[in-house]
Structures are given as structure tokens and as C-alpha cells.
Specification:
The complex is a heterodimer of chains A (184) and B (254). Chain A is built from 9 helices and no strands. Chain A is an all-alpha fold and 184 residues long. Chain B contains 9 helices and 7 strands, in the order αααααααβαββββββα. In chain B, α1 crosses α2, α1 runs parallel beside α3 and α2 packs across α3. The chains are: A mainly alpha (184), B alpha+beta (254). Chains A and B meet through α1, α2, α3, α4 and α6 of A and α1, α3, α4, α6 and α7 of B.
């Protein structure tokens, strides 16, 4: 008995590391994308992703072999929220959209207009409260189903649907306000 | 249905997440109600705008390396916590024997429960993941089906049908030669937003289910079907609904 114990543990550790990499590494961009949208800046997204993967590795024993992307994004999301709570003050530091004038070597005019519109939309989404922002990011940018989003946010599918409805309505309302302001 | 009820369901409507009855009710309502129709249209255009790649923040290249490096000490910590680790030599005959025993036990435990199609599915998922991890998705990168198809000639003993569905949002990005189930296979590579789809094509083999079906493996959706002596497997982290859409488009175009 004493003889078999050590190698078994070692085998478990090795298989774990391999399984871990196979399960969560393919979702690295998805993890970063969510962290970047929730923290709203690149340096913090780096830190959150790093911490989330360390947590994921520690808790990998609790992974039940289901959907690796939802599992990983759930950890990224939780890490983001505890990070935001700890560093609430820096949430007030609002990064100005760095890509706004990216297109200096101006391409066709249409492309420029589209870029400005996208920039506007990006900013509006960043201004949404996190619970609305995250469902829009997971649905429209990550392309997840409501069921998968429910699993990431640990909330019922009905909540996902109503948050999406309210989040999108907020985006539209802001659009209306801006249009009215422009006419004046 | 009144406007308040409809507003809450409009998102589910445009995302095709409502049950058929609710879907019909919303459809009927927005046929009559122009203000809900406008909200729906704007929802759709927001969703569409967000599929542009500039909204998907890709991880910086070096971050993956840094993350993997930060996990290494954790692994060692774990090991050091166990006192037997320090007191025992690392490579003894005990290790070798017990390791082999453990491997045999694991293999015996895993073997009988796996069906041939399970094995194949695992192999295809591994192949899909490998193509993404090694950044080697395509051997021939082209959005032109007339470039991709001839490329396979002479490399395979069959001719896969190559179709592009860019207008429907599934862009053909190229093809790749892969090796699955002890034979060379064609992998057609499509992109939907940021999602990569591998469509594997190879001659039908015995022992596998003939009908169309789908399964979920390690968070990846798989759809398979057979047609004219060929087997098709689509693998992606894309949601099942959109992957089915591609499968239907492909079968419709064959």
C-alpha cells in the first residue's frame, strides 16, 4: 500500500496538469476578452487573467468535466468582481478610448465613419453597469447561448434574458439622447 | 401581448432563444407595433455591429507564457506539501512498477465504456484544439473554394466538396491536411465571428452511427453526418444552433 501511494499521487498531478491545459488554455482569448471588458483596461485585465488561471488550477479538482469555457469564464468573472471590489477607487479612473484616432492613415471615408460609430458603441458599452455589460459581451461578442451565460453568471436564464433586454434598451436610449443633443 | 411584455422578450426573440409559442407571439406583436419593431431592429443592428473583430480583445502573446509560468510553482507547492515526497528517492523500481500498474488500471477503467464514435469524437476535438494551439489552422489559406479544392488533389484519395458561405456569415478561411483515425482526412476551416470551425471530411467507415447527430465534448460542439459514402464532422466552440446552421448550409449545397 505504501508502495503504490506516491506514484499514484504523482500520476494524478501530471494528468491534472495536462487535463487542465487541454480544458482551459483554448479559452485563453475568451478569458482575456471578458476580463478586458469588465476591468476596462489592459493592465488590470492581465492581472485578473493571471489570478483567474491560478485559481482555476487550484480548483481544477472541482471541475466536473462539463463545458470548460463556461467554467473558466465563471472563475474569470468572480476574480474580476473581487478585484473590482478591492480596487474600487481605480474604477473611477476612466481610460479614454485609445483606439479613437487609430485610423490616421485614413482609408475610405465609409470605413472612417464606421470606425467612429464602433468607437461610440464601445464607449457606451463600457459605461453600462457591469451586470448589463457582461451579458452583452458574453452574448454578442463571445457568442454564448443564454444557458451558457446563465452558467457563467450563476443566475437563471430568465435573468439573463431580462438583463440583455434592459442592457440593450439602455444602449438605445443613450443613442436617442445623443441624437437629440446633436440636433440642438 | 402588450408592449411591456414584448420589450422583455425582444432580446430573446432576436437571439432566437424563445420557445416557438413565445416566438410567434412576439412576431405577431411587432408586425402591428411599429415602436417595438424599431426596438427590435436596433437590437439586431447593435448585435450585428458587435460581431466586428475589433470588439474581441485578444490576449497579448506573452500573457499565456506568463500565466503558465505562474502555475509551475503552484504545482511544486502541491508536491512539497506531501512529506513522503522529500523522504523518497525520485526514480526507483517501486516507482516504475507502480506507475505502470496505475497506467494499466486507468486504461482498463477507461476502455470498455468508450464507443468507437466517442473515440473518434475525442480525436477530432484534440485535433481541433491542436490546430488552434499550435496556430496551424490552415495549410492552404484562401477564401476561394476553387483554390482550396484543387489543393487537396493528390494529397488525398478522395475529393472533398469545398463550399464557402461568407454571405451567410461562415467565411471559408482555408483547408488543412489532418490525420485522424489512422488515415489522412481533409479539414475545411471556417470562421464565424471569432470562432474557428473545423469541418473534417473523410470516407465513411464501418462501426459508426450513420445518422446525423450532435454531441458536446470538453465544451466543444460536434455535429456529424454521412452522405454519399463520406463522413462529415463539424467541431467548434460555436454554439450548437449556429453550428447546425453551417451543417445545414453545407448539406444543402452538396
Amino acid at each position: 500500500m505504501n508502495m503504490t501511494a506516491p506514484p499514484r499521487n504523482n500520476l494524478v498531478a501530471n494528468t491534472n496538469r495536462l487535463e487542465f491545459e487541454k480544458t482551459v488554455l483554448p479559452h485563453f482569448d475568451a478569458a482575456y476578452n471578458l476580463a478586458r471588458w469588465l476591468t476596462r483596461n489592459t493592465a488590470d485585465a492581465d492581472d485578473v487573467v493571471q489570478e483567474a488561471y491560478m485559481r482555476a488550477f487550484k480548483f481544477f479538482g472541482g471541475f466536473n468535466g462539463g463545458d470548460g469555457r463556461s467554467w473558466m469564464l465563471r472563475i474569470v468573472r468572480n476574480t474580476c468582481y473581487s478585484w473590482l471590489q478591492k480596487n474600487r477607487s481605480s474604477e473611477l479612473v476612466y481610460e479614454l478610448s485609445e483606439a479613437l484616432y487609430d485610423d490616421k492613415n485614413s482609408g475610405p471615408e465609409v470605413e472612417l465613419i464606421e470606425n467612429v460609430e464602433r468607437q461610440w458603441l464601445r464607449q457606451k458599452i463600457e459605461e453600462l453597469p457591469a451586470p448589463f455589460r457582461e451579458v452583452i459581451v458574453l452574448r454578442d461578442i463571445e457568442g454564448m447561448s443564454y444557458k451558457e451565460i446563465a452558467s457563467v453568471t450563476e443566475s437563471p436564464v430568465g435573468t439573463v434574458m431580462s438583463r440583455l433586454a434592459r442592457g440593450r434598451e439602455r444602449l438605445q436610449k443613450q443613442a436617442g439622447v445623443d441624437e437629440a443633443g446633436g440636433k440642438r | 401581448m402588450n408592449c411591456n411584455e414584448s420589450r422583455l422578450l425582444l432580446s430573446g426573440y432576436s437571439d432566437r432563444e424563445l420557445d416557438p409559442e413565445q416566438h410567434r407571439e412576439v412576431e405577431t406583436h411587432i408586425d402591428d407595433c411599429s415602436s417595438c419593431r424599431d426596438v427590435h431592429r436596433r437590437n439586431v443592428s447593435i448585435s450585428k455591429a458587435l460581431t466586428h473583430e475589433s470588439f474581441y480583445y485578444r490576449a497579448p502573446a506573452d500573457l499565456r507564457e506568463r500565466v503558465l509560468a505562474s502555475i509551475d510553482p503552484l504545482e511544486n507547492d502541491d508536491a512539497e506539501k506531501r512529506s513522503w515526497w522529500k523522504s523518497r528517492p525520485r526514480l526507483s523500481w517501486e516507482w516504475a512498477v507502480a506507475f505502470s500498474l496505475a497506467v494499466i488500471v486507468v486504461m482498463l477503467a477507461a476502455w470498455p465504456v468508450r464507443s468507437p464514435s466517442d473515440d473518434l469524437a475525442n480525436e477530432l476535438v484534440a485535433s481541433h484544439v491542436r490546430s488552434l494551439m499550435a496556430d496551424h489552422v490552415t495549410d492552404v489559406a484562401s477564401t476561394d473554394q476553387h483554390t482550396v479544392k484543387p489543393w487537396f488533389d493528390g494529397r488525398l484519395d478522395f475529393a472533398p466538396t469545398v463550399l464557402d458561405f461568407a454571405p451567410q456569415g461562415f467565411v471559408l478561411v482555408g483547408g488543412r491536411l489532418d490525420y485522424v483515425s489512422n488515415r489522412p482526412v481533409a479539414a475545411l476551416v471556417y470562421k464565424r465571428r471569432q470562432h474557428v470551425i473545423n469541418l473534417f471530411v473523410f470516407p465513411e467507415q464501418g462501426g459508426l452511427p450513420a445518422s446525423q447527430g450532435s454531441m458536446l465534448k470538453q465544451g466543444y460542439n460536434l455535429i456529424h453526418w454521412n452522405r454519399s459514402g463520406m463522413t462529415y464532422w463539424a467541431v467548434s466552440d460555436l454554439n450548437l444552433e449556429e453550428l447546425t446552421q453551417l451543417a445545414n448550409l453545407y448539406q444543402g449545397g452538396q
